[in-house]
């Protein structure tokens, strides 16, 4: 019981730190947030904060990893709601595009979208989409004349355009154009 209580406390401290840091960065900008500010806002001593994280960048990377994990879990839920392979692929691509919408290039995005944690997530996401493409190709819903790994990269790169689109309708059109490129040639 004592270990469970300590672990729960650690999780609470970590979660509070991640949320507070993200809020401070959103409010004041990346360059102006300090460990002292985070400690003060969370009510955690600076020494304790440093036991969890080495600097603000480390906190933001942990926050980003948590966000990305939640997004991947959401994509799995979308996948599991649709039975037909081609429709499943389309639903997941639409969900991914909607997640990408509004994530514009910012100083924070530049910090968070580099390093091994991003490469690891990108590999997971590519494998996830590749698996959906293999299923859809086997069902005859998408082309099988291009390697699925290549098609997965194509999908993910094309859907990053969703970040700059102005509406859900535009995002839907982007997904439809992407799906058209995935269909078997006549």
Summarize this, please?
The protein is an all-alpha fold and 186 residues long.
Write the topology of this structure.
Blueprint: H1 2-28, H2 35-42, H3 46-52, H4 56-80, H5 85-100, H6 107-112, H7 116-138, H8 148-159, H9 168-182
Helix pairs in contact: 1-2, 1-4, 4-5, 4-7, 5-7, 5-9, 7-8, 8-9
Describe the sheet with the most strands.
none
Overall shape: elongated
Low confidence ranges: none
- Tell me the number of helical segments per DSSP (H or I, 4 or more residues long): 9
Helix content: over 70%
Strand-pairing-aware structural class: mainly alpha
What is the CATH C-level name of the largest domain? Mainly Alpha
Average pLDDT over all residues: 89
Name the CATH superfamily assignment of the largest domain: Tetracycline Repressor, domain 2
Q: SSE order, as H and E?
A: HHHHHHHHH
Stated plainly, the CATH topology of the largest domain is called Tetracycline Repressor, domain 2
Number of strands: 0
- Tell me the distance between the termini: 64 Å
CATH architecture of the largest domain: Orthogonal Bundle
Strand fraction: under 5%
Q: What is the total domain count? A: 2
Task: Indicate the radius of gyration in whole angstroms.
Answer: 20 Å
